Amino acid sequence: MANTVSSYSKDVLDQWNPEDPVFLEAYGKKIANRNLWISTACLFLAFATWMIWSVVAVNLNSAGFNFTKEQLFTLAAMPGLSGATLRIFYSFVVPIFGGRNWTVVSTASLLIPALGIGVAVQNPNTSFETMMLLALFCGFGGGNFSSSMSNISFFFPKKAQGSALGINAGLGNLGVSAIQFIVPIVIGMSVFGDLGGAPQTLTTDGVTKTVWLQNAGFVLVVPILFCTIAAAFGMNNLKSAQTPLREQLVIFRRKHMYLTTLLYIMSFGSFIGYAAAFPLLIKTQFVGVNAIQLAFIGPLLGAAIRPLGGIIADKLGGAVVTLWTLFLMIAAVLGVLWFIQPDTRSFEGFFACFMVLFVTTGLANGSVFRMIGVIFPPKEKAPVLGFSAAIAAFGAFYIPKAFGWAVEATGHVDPAFWGFAAYYVLCVAILFIWYLGKNAEIKC
Question: Which domains does the chain have, with CATH numbers?
């Protein structure tokens, strides 16, 4: 082979052919894995930044702020709105600017909300409008997913798409549970001393304690700086991935782009939306239950199992795995509805059903992305991955808002859950008609 190892260690790789097993073993695998793991670390921090409001919002009023329930649900939802919108643009930037270049810029941008939140929460007179702006800035983290997945899809062969994308997305998704686990710990101690600012008094259920709520943002600063440097010196741009925007936009003429996007809304949209709303949902439905201590478990399970969804889908087929997870999701939603009714209310049952929801959405995340990897050619696959992820990310907005709207209109959250169940039934029909049935166009 004419290429040398040194030619594959520079910023821009002129030749890249992961479908060639000789090339992959000699050069490609090591480089692909290095880019994957750095990308995963950056995505982990992106998700942590994106979902930080899911735990910060729960503590604001106890720390001296005076926001309504609707305003708190709105703060939890705003990062979903901005993150999903940014994903639309991030879907197409990697083939234009380069995967390494964009990872550096997009990871560094996370410093804006991390530092901003750390400053704003120290003053209970900070306006709702300012808080909402900071919540919108957290969307930088949500946008990163589309560019990250688009970039990594170029590095691996088709047979490994489910596993590689599952690892990148799954371990990246762990940032959601990590921030929901870490924040309650770090706000309880003076991590940064005088440099971190003065503490606040937090009053919950009549119990008063001293906290440093600003640590929720400040704790991310050093890891963000570290991963930005790692991306700058450890990742690569691929010349073969360069695609003019007009060639990427061809995906909007593909029927299956819209169908797989609907499926990804079901999987990732549900995962990220439930993760954003879960702490507030526990707090509003079960008075006296410590939502902060439990909220991280669901996103942890969903993110951890996502790579397995991709691996199983590589072996059994993405559509089959997606179908069975959908059946379980429908059953879990009905279970949640049952356990929040006045006569059958049970936190244990509610929590168990929600854990099933998180696990099944995690599995479906991996299986749907495997379907996309098989259905579309490489230069279309990347923008489809990015765009479907962009639209699905609106789940982080519409699911918390759906609960807020349902409560405002009816006094309870039941209508929102019935709407989610109906959507899952629609997705079952899509799978049977186009990907699994006897006359399905593409068996995948």
Answer: 8-436 (1.20.1250.20)
